[in-house]
Amino acid sequence: MRMKLSHFNFELPEELIPQYPSDVRDESKLMVIHRETGKIEHKVFKDVLDYFDNEDVLILNNTKVFPARLFGRKEKTGAKIEVFLLRELNPEMKLWDVLVDPARKIRVGNKLYFSDEEDNDVLIAEVVDNTTSRGRTIRFLFDGEEERFTEILDSLGNTPLPKYFNREAVKIDKERYQTVFASEKGAVAAPTAGLHFSHELLKRFELKGIDFAKVTLHVGLGTFRNIEVEDLSKHKMDAEYFKVNKEAIEIVNRAKKKNRKVCAVGTTSMRSIETAVSATEMLKEAEGWTNMFIYPPHEFRIANSMITNFHLPKSSLLIMICAFGGYDLIMKAYDEAIKHKYKFYSYGDAMLII
User: Fold this and answer.
1) Is 298 left (phi over 0), alpha (psi -120 to 50) or beta?
2) Quick one: pLDDT at residue 76?
3) Is this structure's pTM higher than 0.85?
C-alpha cells in the first residue's frame, strides 16, 4: 500500500498536549514497543535502562537551543514587533535570517530597536532584504566584540517555545526546554526525545557500560511546518545543518560490528545518521545540510532501536516513526497512548521502539 498523508491523521485531545514540563525529567511515562512480537509495555522513562546492556550505544543530538525570540519596536511608530532568529548568515556583518511578526509592517530599510529590562535601547537592527512573506534578512548595527554581541543577544532573547504552547516562555523553560547534554549552540527548537534524560540517568547508563555517540543537528522551524501534499514523495523538508564526527562513527560502527543495540535518541539523531551512511552501510563522517524526509517504506541502515516522543497528526515526525516501527503497530500504539492519557509533543511522554 502506498502511504498518503491522510493515513497519518488521528484525533488528538487537546488536553494531551502539556503546556509545562513534568516535575522530574526521567519520570515521564514510557511506552515500550517490541517490533517483532507487537507487544506494548507501559513503564516510567527511567526504566529505559533495563532494555540496554554493556556495549550498546545511544546516539544523542547535542544541539543547544539558543534564545531565538526577540521582542522590539519599529523606529518612529514604536509599533511592537517580534523577531525570530533562524540562522546567522554572516558573523562578521551580523547578518541574520529571521521571521518577523507582524510582517506587513516591516519593510526593507526599517530600523528595529531592542531594549533591556530597564527600557534602555541596547541593540539596533536594520532590515536589508525580504526573503519570504514573513522572512527578512536583518543586520545588527553593533561594532563591539563578537562575545559581547552574543551576550547581548542571549540576554534579550526568549526561549523559542513552539506556537502550540499558547503562552510566553517562563523561567523553567530556560532549563527544561534544553537537554542536559546540549553543547553546540544553533537550534531554534529542542530535540525533544533527549529532554527525558537526567544527569543521574546518563550516569547509570555509563556505569552499565553503555556508550554515547554525540551527533549534531540544529533543529529548525521546518520541523513544525505542515505537510501540504497528499503524495509524500512530493514533500520537501527544510534543510538543517548537521554534523557526524569521527568519534561518533567509531563508537557506532564498533557496536554495529558486534551486533549490539544502536539506539537513535530522537528523530533528529535518526535523520543525521541516515544522511551519513557509507556504501558498506556503516556510519561515515559527514557535515553539511540535510533535507532528508523519511517516510514508509524506508530501509534504516544504522539504528536498530529508537527513543522518541509522541508526535502530532500528519507530522513528518510521526511519518518517520511509522517507517521505523511499522505503520499498523505504531498507529495501534498511538491509540493506546490516547487511551492511557500519554502526553504528546515537546513536554510529553516517550516511546522506546526495539
Assistant:
1) beta
2) 84
3) yes
**Residue 195 and residue 348: Cα distance in Å, rounded?**
10
SS (H, E, C) 245-307: CHHHHHHHHHHHHCCCCEEEECHHHHHHHHHCECCCCCECCEEEEECCCCCCCCCCCCCCEEE
Residues 17, 223, 33, 231: is their CA dihedral positive or negative? positive
Specify the pLDDT at position 270.
98
- Report the C-alpha gap between 65 and 158 in whole angstroms: 11
Low-confidence ranges of the chain (pLDDT < 70): 1
Domain 5-65+174-353 fold is QueA-like (3.40.1780)
pLDDT for 122: 87
Helices 267-275, 316-325: axis angle to 10 degrees equals: 70
| Chain CA centroid to CA 19, Å | 17
Q: Where in the chain is the domain with CATH 3.40.1780.10?
A: 5-65+174-353
Report the distance separating Cα 54 and Cα 115, nearest Å: 52
Residue intervals of the chain classified under CATH 2.40.10.240 are: 69-157
Q: What is the pLDDT of residue 226?
A: 87
What is the architecture of the domain spanning 69-157?
Answer: Beta Barrel (2.40)
Q: How far is CA 304 from each of CA 73, 196, 300, rounded to the nearest angstrom?
A: 50, 20, 8
Of 348, 324, 318, 354, the C-alpha closest to 7 is 318
CB atoms within 10 A of CB 312: 17
Amino acid (one-letter) located at 305: S
* CB-based contact 146:140 (threshold 8 Å): no
The answer to whether 244 touches 272, Cβ cutoff 8 Å, is: yes
Q: Does residue 331 contact residue 323 with C-beta atoms inside 8 Å?
A: no
